[in-house]
Amino acid sequence: MCLAVPGRVMEIEERDGARMAVVDFGGVVKEVCLEYLPDLRVGEYAIVHVGFALQRLDEESARRTLELFAELGLLQEEFGDPWEAAAAAAAIANAEVQG
Q: What does pTM read for this prediction?
């Protein structure tokens, strides 16, 4: 299973020939490569997997997913690595969808 987490682009810069962004994942901020989405802009949301923005996402879908993670307490740094927590949340959500 692959995990992708929605995040909001806060800043964009060119670094060593690559388009990079600072992305906010519900309070957890990470650097992300934008090479697969060259027209993504500040303020937009994208699904990110292993440090790469892969697909543009509408704000409502992104917020719902991040709210679910927050409700489960999985994006708070005191619960450990937020990426591991997000993976656990995705597994729970996937199990609920599949019934």
A: 0.68
